[in-house]
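FW: tagging you since you asked about this chain on Friday. Here's the raw sequence from the shared folder, copied in full. Didn't touch anything.
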Amino acid sequence: MTTPQQDAVAPGPLPGATAATHCPYCALQCAQTLTATPGERLPVAVAGREFPTNRGGLCQKGWTSAEVLRASDRITTPLIRTADGGFREAGWDEALDLVAGRVRELQAESGNDAVAVFGGGGLTNEKAYALGKFARLALGTRLIDYNGRFCMSSAAAASNRALGMDRGLAFPLADLRGADAVLILGSNMGVTMPPFVQHLAGVRERGGLVVVDPRETVTAKLTRDGAGVHLAAVPGSDMVVLLALLHIVLAEGLQDDAYLADRVEGLDDVRRSVAQWWPERAEAATGVPADTLREVARLLAAASPSRGGRGAYVLTGRGVEQMAQGTDCVNAAINLALALGLIGREGSGYGPVTGQGNGQGGREHGQKSDQLPGYRMITDPAARAHVASVWGVDPAVIPGPGVPAVQLLSSLGTADGPRALLVHGSNVVVSAPNATAVEERLRALDLLVVCDLVPSETALLADVVLPVTQWAEEDGTMTNLEGRIIRRRAAVAAPGEARSELWILRELARRLGCDATFSEDAETMFDEMARASAGGKADYSGVTYARLDAGEELFWPCPAPAPGESAHPGTPRPFLESFPTPSGRARMIAVAHRGPADDVRPGMATYLVTGRVLQHYQSGAQTRRVRELAQAQPEAFVEMHPLLAERYGLTEGAVAFLATARGEAMARVRLTTDIRTDTVFMPFHWAGAGSANRLTNDVTDPTSSMPEFKVTAVAIRAAHQLRPASELEGAAR
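HL: got it, structure written out here
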């Protein structure tokens, strides 16, 4: 243990002191009030706080979030790998000197790209910005990407090419409450972010909720009793549903002709592309009855403003985005919304439902392999010049674009790939597709450094583990699923030697001889980030801590005012006047359905889909350590229809072995009639034998580089029937 450095440790709070902050989990970013409880088992008490997204509510994860602050295996001092494969405690100077020394050695031998960085969508804006700056200036490496590539990349790519900007929801979440129709594809927010559901109450009362999902999820059940329609489409066929809905809209003249003429381009190509998807053909591909498709298309059209409706929304989630055709599928959703005249109108719109806590802000400020702060492209000379001026360097110093996450991870430890990896806010051993192969690549590295608060499965493979602060122990900002910038506030001191990643990056940069400014003060880094973002699509330059602390609701873009002008109010609805495209119009993009890359076939006759459960979050590294949550969902499971289970000789609670072309897993069977008879579901929160991502496909979308997590062909056997995946008929990498 080392002596705490006074500039790195917050003072302990007084009993009863409160902090207004937000939940550490999903992108809803529910507001919380934390009350200091020194001397108690937990350092803070958690209460929901009134806020537009959660309106005072929290889910089970939010209510129990303080438990992670005192996890029994919380890492509180740096750890260094020993010769026998274990860890020993070390002081900060020793640990950071070791990391910096090994980085210098490896880069001297193999070049700057010998060292790579992998970030996370849960990092604050300030840490995401500092990490991108650190990679490019202190390490001089091209190779940085982050786990948001697994979350929002397809939605971002589709929004950028159709609307000119990726802003997640381009409207406040509360706007949904007035709609006559909401179409949800690939999202189960009733489980993933329960406080979201209250915003659907109005549309349910009016019978306008439409949910597309191969399972009758909690969210799909909200359509019961006349509240809407559930479309149990074949896994991987969501795009056909969208193409058919647009076919019907255009064939029946339900489109908004005035809006299309004034604000949209590309209709003719899209009209030709959807002509082949008449309802009866779509029924054969999706399993959704043709008449139901007609009913839904007419419902959406009737809700649209052009036909006198209150408004309609189209929302997408990971179920349709985590596909090898994910970008095209999102563009099909946007095409439908544009045809109905929904986007850029108050009370209507399209939006992807962001998953990770800072999934929006985390991709705007430099963690992504091809971007600089402000959502600027790293290949744009003007963008490079602007950011370089803020950083005080020559633009030529900033490396060019790197490679996206799947390609980066698969190259680790190879002859031409990185020899070292620094991981921040991610647990790739559990969360990456084809996870067994990812673990092999991590083990091949010369140096793995992981910043984490608990010994995650990835941290347990590391050569050096650096303990970091978490949500209630740090200041900063997050950007939620609406593009709303919010404040995270420290309520309690971090335990032991845990440090903010801002401090760690500053200390490493100094040891690496980097002269660029890195500050451990979050507000200082935010102000610099805001300057770096100025003039970019994601312009934060008019946002300050003072404005946020005063209670202003600020959505980006929020540019700094010119001299003599009033402060910019922010942009809750960015497309009302025009779209940030060269023509000022939105673009309809003609797309074609290709289907899953690893489709069902003899020997692999069942679809596997993956997702979340209520009690756990992402890789489960935090939530599996909360007793209440772990007791409610203690292990992985495979959900299947009783008829499918009978075919495989499986019963409730029996152990099933599952195999794909990439690997094998095992889990107990749960029987339900809420799923198609050709489909099984596994949650992805567990490691080891129950890891769903040992099975998932790492083939990627050609535009977004999103891997195809959400559907793959799987072979299923009872335990005594297990055979290696390589022997299964039709298995091919």
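FW: Residues 92-110 form the longest helix (19 residues).
HL: agreed, and The two ends are 47 Å apart (CA to CA).
FW: great, closing this out.
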